[in-house]
Amino acid sequence: MNLKKLFAVLAVFALILAACDAGGGGDETTPTTVADDGGTDDTVAPDDGGGDTGAQTGGDLLSAVMDRGTLNCGVNETLPGFGSKDETGAFVGFDVDLCRAVAAAVLGDSEAVEYTALTAAQRFEALSSGSIDMLSRNTTWTQSRDGELGVDFAPTTYYDGQQVMANAADGFDSGSGLSDLAGAVICTNAGTTTEKNITEAMQAAGADFTLTTFEDFNIVLENFKSGACDAVTTDGSGLVSRKSTDEPAPGDWVIFPAVPISKEPLGPGVAQGDAKWADAVNWTMYALIIAEELGITSANVDDMQANPPNGEVQRLLGGEEEKQTAMGLPVDAFYNVIKQVGNYGEIFDTHLTVLGLERGLNALWSDGGLLYAPPAR
Amino acid sequence: MTQSSGPKTAHERPPLWRDATVLKWAAQIAVLFGLIFVVVVAIRSAAANLEAQGLTFSWRFLSDRPGIQLSEGFATLPDSGLEAILVGIVNMLRVTASGVVAATILGIVIGIARLSSNWLVNKSSTVYVETIRNVPLLLQIVFWAAVFVSFPSLEPEGSGPIEGWLYVTNKGLSIPWFFPRESFWQWFVFVVAGAIAARYAFRWRIKVLEQTGHDAHAVGYALGAFLVFAVVGWFAHPLVGALGWVFGGLAWLFGSIPVLLMQIILAVLAVALAIWWIRRFLDSLRSPAGLARLTDDDIFRIGLAGAMGLVAAVVFFLVPGITEGINLGLERLFEFWDTKFNFLEAGTVLEFGRPTVETPGRFAGFGLTGMTMSGPFFGVWVGVTLYTAAFIAEIVRGGILAVAKGQTEAGLALGLKRGQLLRMIVLPQAFRIILPPMGNQYLNLAKNTSLGIAVGYAEVVAVGQTLFNQTGATIQVILIWMGFYLLVSLILSSIVNWYNRRVALVER
Fold first, then answer.
1. DSSP 8-class letter at B424
2. Global pTM exceeds 0.95
3. I need a labelling partner for B68 at 20 to 30 A (CA). Which of A23, A232, A255, B253 fits?
4. Range with the lowest mean pLDDT among A303-307, A355-359, B84-88, B271-275?
5. C-alpha dihedral (A101, A107, A110, A111), degrees to nearest 10
6. pLDDT for B195-222, tens place per residue?
7. Which string of b and e fits A276-306 if b means at least 16 CB within 10 Å?
8. Cβ-defined contact of A191 to B375 (cutoff 8 Å)
9. Residue in chain B nearest A271 by alpha carbon
10. Regarding beta strands A269-271 and B161-162, do their DSSP bridges make them parallel or antiparallel, or are they unpaired?
């Protein structure tokens, strides 16, 4: 009787050990950044070769995504213009289009994207755990995120700055400053750079305040509308976007200070340690900008491909001397991007100009903005 | 296998692989090593994964300045990550402690109401229980937070409902309150002494009641004793200031004691504790005739206790830092209490404060003179209290129904009134049945407070999440969370278990 029990315990224990061993052993040969489903692991592990250099080369997410046939992209669903759901429940927005552009480049189909709606606090976990391939959720590029959080940032796609929004009825106008906010309850969403920025800026302004943070920006806005929060703070673009959709009457809400309290370069990010995948995402972003520079739009891309006006257009759209195959992308990767999604300017106009956001810093460098892509040659 | 047909002699042992003693010991050791192996594999693969992603595992964030402001707590602008987490912990404990008290009272009332013969009371409490416990808690918390948001906004003047006394606004609920002042702890010593005196007075009067059969006013005597101490203490509290010298002396002692001496004391204590435990264990196994029969498990437990005592003693000698830390901690602790009992600074015990509205800039806010409950706190507190009270009500109802009907009938036959019957016969017996499941509800309440993150309450999970989003120390913060909730659960359940053992029927 006792022996039976004992053997049962031992047997269970042996099973546990076996399971752990399999898990542990798998980790040594399989790069961890590779996606969540077992199917891709099998195809990736062999060509990775020596596990010793795993830390440098990381996984091969590019071929994993190609084998899977879909791109897993983490986006926002609470920020109209950048990432939100339309009436049909489909994700739309500037950041969403960046996912579509990468899917078009890598898979040839801008609709082959699995979206995951993430809160600000969830996003980096989702990226480092491998449940998304790419994060495109108005994420600020900072040194600590690059270093400690293990995010590789793609080029900045939107130059933003943090501002504050308050009620005009409380005596604020666009010329107000942070010191006018003394004693206020300021609300923002948890797990963002905004918490630290506003804390430091208010200290610098010498004004005491109360900071309340919520997981969901919709709740932040509810509290602001009811008066439980005296002001809200987040990236200027986010404030403009929410003002355009939620303001009770035009002119009720005011956004200030005129010079933002922080630099917020927003852009997509990928998990650290996979240079090939990072290059694919980076150059998709550059292609969007270069296309705008060269005047390639979704409307004229077929003409441009047939009769390229110059070498750069020819190379970018997959003609002679193209550089895409060397990066592991399909020849017509960027043709598909422009054809299916459009160039940077088109994406901006579709989603952001309609909200009342101006190009400002986000104009091409040749127009006095900050957008500058390396040459495609 | 050959089976010996005759009866075995006592000295004949089975082969090694069938010897129960050997197998048991082998299993214990195998489990121990297996456990260590699993833990090591898990830690190593986690470390490898982190390294592969270029992440570093460091606890530096605990000492770095987080640079974030928290919405409420004892330090809204923490100097270090550790302090930020402590603010979160204290906020969590605040809502847990007040929630446990409120949910217990409400739950008992509703539980009794469910058994009421008054149709309206009975049905409305049933509706309460069925509604509350069948709606997810998260929704309820969000609902109460939204209710709070819909309160009128706070104006510099004219907010109410009773200006200067009670404010109900979406910036907070503010009420008058008594605040402890510099001499509070001196007075508190008298209060504790009063509570002990009340207990003795109560027992004495109950004895008189049992001997004479006349009502001896036990509750009145107990209350009187307590009040005498409290009132005398209110005026005589500086007398206890002498305790400050004792604490000061202890602080000096721990500050100046050589580390080596302290190490020896701690090591001796560790070994003595192990010996004490083993002796008590042996005593508990001993039959009235003084004989003890030890099973293999018992020997293993004795061996483990002894080994742990020795290991602790050795560790105290090998790592002097532990002893230094203990010395420093005790010194600080007694220094802290020294300042609380300084009778040179003796003054007010409690101070009454009414809520005030201050307007430093354009916005009205509550001053520090009243007790203010924030919206997020309100949401979490009301949510977990109502939710847990529904479950406690069911437990109370079950406990009362489980008391044998004969007890009620006997009480009625003695001529007790309904209220007396409930208070003196039914509830004391129901209490024994109620207590163990109550402990589970308290644990649930404590853990459910982590939902506060949804409404912006700065408890330990919300603060931790903010921290790791700023610093990337995800695993470290999660480890801290797990350790903290484990500690709280263990402490809560051991309190309930201890109380349960105390009130349990002594079986013979």
1. I
2. no
3. A255
4. A355-359
5. -140
6. 999 999 888 888 888 888 777 788 888 8
7. bbbbbbbbbbbbbbbbbbbebbbeebeebbe
8. no
9. B53
10. unpaired
